[in-house]
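Lecture notes, part 5. Sequence design as translation. It can be helpful to think of inverse folding as translation between two languages: the language of shapes and the language of residues. The source text, in structure tokens, appears below.
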């Protein structure tokens, strides 16, 4: 077993690759299901604000119109407001999180931070139900097509960085008691990381991180005692 761990240099990477693919399959399946479920709901809510025509940096249709919707409860409110009676909103009136659209500006409010976008940066055109449905359909298709490979790549990159950091710390600790090779510590930690991370995906992420460090320490200690 010791020779197997030390001689197979690509064993750790292979384990992380398999883990990343499995994790991506689990997460992307749930993500795609949520996108497919809620995209029609969101588009249906947005339809009530349409059609919107922008020309030369301002909304020309609908004119003199106010449409307001509030989502969530008292503790988590999110407002969506269209008001073409005013060119811009007073900053004091945007205290609650939400999206606000005046005749000439778009506001995104998140807590105490407000992002303002001028409609001069928006090309002339009309956003209607047909355009929205086409965009939503394209979004769902792209999610179905790209979520798995994108998440797999991100997961593999994060895993490589995390395992390296764990190993640097663990190898320093192990050096106090054992003269363990860095490659050996790296491969042991990789195996533990893959197992615990898989559990953390379907369980508690914070508990998974703590459990991972404990198991890495235990696995390296037992391995060092057995091969001392």
């Amino acid at each position: 077993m010791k020779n197997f761990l030390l001689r197979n240099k690509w064993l750790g990477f292979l384990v992380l690759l398999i883990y990343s693919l499995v994790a991506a399959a689990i997460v992307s399946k749930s993500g795609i299901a949520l996108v497919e479920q809620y995209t029609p709901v969101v588009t249906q809510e947005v339809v009530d604000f349409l059609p919107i025509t922008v020309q030369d940096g301002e909304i020309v249709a609908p004119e003199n119109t106010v449409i307001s919707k509030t989502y969530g409860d008292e503790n988590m409110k999110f407002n969506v407001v269209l008001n073409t009676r005013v060119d811009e909103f007073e900053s004091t009136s945007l205290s609650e999180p939400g999206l606000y659209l005046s005749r000439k500006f778009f506001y995104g409010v998140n807590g105490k931070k407000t992002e303002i976008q001028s409609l001069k940066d928006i090309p002339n055109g009309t956003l209607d139900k047909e355009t929205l449905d086409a965009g939503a359909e394209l979004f769902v298709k792209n999610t179905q097509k790209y979520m798995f490979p994108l998440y797999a790549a991100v997961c593999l990159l994060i895993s490589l960085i995390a395992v390296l950091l764990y190993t640097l710390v663990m190898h320093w600790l192990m050096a106090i008691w054992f003269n363990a090779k860095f490659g050996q510590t790296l491969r042991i930690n990789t195996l533990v990381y893959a197992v615990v991370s898989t559990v953390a995906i379907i369980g508690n992420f914070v508990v998974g991180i703590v459990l991972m460090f404990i198991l890495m320490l235990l696995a390296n200690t037992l391995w060092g005692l057995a091969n001392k």
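The translated text above is only one of many valid answers, since several sequences can fold into similar shapes. The CA atoms of residues 49 and 67 lie 7 Å apart.
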